[in-house]
Write a structure and sequence with these properties.
Layout (H helix, E strand, L loop, with lengths): L1 H16 L7 E2 L4 E3 L5 H7 L2 E6 L3 E3 L6 E4 L4 H6 L21 E9 L2 E4 L1 H4 L4 H4 E5 L14 E2 L3 E13 L4 E8 L22 E6 L7 E10 L5 E4 L11 E4 L5 E7 L4 E4 L4 E4 L1 E2 L7 E5 L4 H15 L2 H8 L15 H7 L3 H9 L14 H6 L8 H8 L14 H7 L3 H16 L1
Parallel strand pairs: 1-19
Antiparallel strand pairs: 2-13, 3-6, 3-8, 4-5, 5-9, 6-7, 7-11, 8-10, 10-11, 12-13, 12-15, 13-14, 14-20, 15-16, 16-20, 17-18
Length: 429
């Protein structure tokens, strides 16, 4: 009778509190701590973040600017709800580590995070969760979540693009953060070429909500779907939204979104075990292609049209109602690109669609900074367009330069005179 009760409890625990999403170990468990990873993968990990509830983040009164994360462990999670009699099987990894992360994400632009669509679909996500960088196990103390710098924690400003459709195989979300991320570099993403059928892969994220883990040794398994591919990554819930990297180039191929069950009952030992599959067995883990995000798929065409002034292509892109300020690693929006080429018709069209005129790129340059390099009497209309839209002459880039300083630095004296004149007129109003 006791064994029957234990089996019932195990099944109840798994059905009621088990993680959902991408979940399983293929072959050997290739997860390891960030500090154990290669230099390249450690650098990539710096641009990944964990989605953690506001209620699991607290200030350290004795250390200004320092935050602690909830120290509830993976074992504590299993025992939640009165399930103290159910335990992980002996040898299960990381059961004594904390696990506050709900989902994973990664940085693709100074202020843009990509994650899974089902993470974005969480009610009040922007209000109730924050994005935490450097949520790693400390090499010396072997602890995590007790040395988080406040500057590495970001709020969600808004969800700018997302989809969750089983029918279409879509699962992605793009989030704008409350400010540009500092101290780390946005990741390169695949915006066109299809990943090869046998490409080796690396997964970086937060399996089961744990501190960031790097899991290498994976490969593409099924590359036939248009919006996603499957792989044999060692991934668990909490990895939802994790970056899946090309192991050879470091480029993000996609977003880990769904897969096998991660924990299963071991009826012989009466405990909860990690689900192990052979490298070519089970269903595989699904990875949304980066190009399944419309803004990513259209980005290179939008940039090309903005630079060339091709209004035919631009109008077709704008008719699709995509976010015109979408940008990638360099942080340059279409308006910044168009201004750098003084394409006035493009500038007008983008501003009419709500482009942020004072948006700054990864180097702090605005559309006005870029225009300052090419500004002259024959294209002075471009300056009028930006100023009429609210462009500020006093914005500084990361080198502490205004647009006027950039014009002078570029030896563009004609442009400098026009900016000075515009500043004088503005001051008189």
């Amino acid at each position: 009778m006791k064994k029957i009760i234990q089996l019932a409890v195990i099944n109840t625990v798994l059905s009621s509190v088990a993680f959902a999403g991408p979940l399983v170990v293929y072959g050997e468990d290739n997860r390891h701590e960030v500090y154990e990873a290669s230099d390249i993968n450690q650098l990539l990990a710096k641009s990944t973040a964990a989605m953690i509830a506001v209620t699991d983040i607290s200030a350290v009164a004795s250390i200004p600017g320092s935050l602690n994360l909830n120290q509830h462990t993976l074992t504590d999670w299993l025992h939640d709800g009165g399930n103290e009699g159910v335990n992980f099987c002996d040898g299960t990894r990381y059961v004594d580590q904390i696990n506050p992360a709900i989902c994973s994400g990664f940085l693709i632009a100074p202020d843009l995070i990509v994650t899974a669509g089902h993470c974005v679909a969480i009610e009040n996500m922007c209000d109730e969760f924050k994005w935490v960088f450097d949520y790693n196990v400390n090499k010396d103390t072997k602890l995590a979540g007790m040395d988080i710098k406040e500057e590495n924690v970001y709020k969600c400003k808004k969800v700018v693009s997302n989809a969750l459709s089983t029918l279409l195989g879509l699962d992605y979300g793009v989030i704008q953060l409350d400010r540009a991320v500092t101290g780390r570099v946005p990741l390169e993403i695949n915006n066109g070429k299809k990943v090869s059928d046998t490409q080796s892969l690396v997964l970086i994220g937060n399996p089961s909500g744990l501190p960031t883990k790097v899991a290498d040794g994976a490969n593409v398994r099924n590359n036939s779907y248009s919006t996603y591919f499957s792989a044999n990554t060692d991934s668990f819930s909490g990895n939802s939204g994790s970056a899946v990297f090309n192991a050879d180039t470091g480029v993000v191929e996609g977003i880990l979104v769904r897969g096998e069950e991660d924990y299963i009952p071991n009826y012989e030992k009466m405990c909860i075990a990690v689900n192990y599959c052979a490298t070519d067995a089970c269903r595989g883990e699904d990875v949304s292609r980066m190009t399944s995000i419309p803004e990513v798929a259209l980005h290179k065409y939008l940039m090309a049209a903005s630079i060339s002034g091709d209004m035919v292509i631009l109008d077709k892109i704008l008719s699709l109602n995509t976010w015109v300020d979408f940008n990638t690693k360099d942080g340059q929006s279409a308006l910044i690109k168009a201004s750098g080429a003084a394409k006035t018709n493009v500038m007008k069209a983008l501003i009419a669609r709500g482009a942020q005129v004072n948006k700054q790129d990864a180097n702090g340059n605005t559309a006005l900074h870029e225009l300052a390099k090419v500004l002259k009497s024959s294209n002075a209309e471009a300056l009028k367009i930006l100023l009429a839209a609210g462009a500020r002459l006093d914005v500084l880039n990361l080198d502490g330069e205004t647009a006027l300083a950039v014009a002078k630095k570029s030896s563009n004296m004609d442009g400098a005179k026009l900016i000075i004149s515009a500043g004088t007129l503005t001051a008189k109003k």
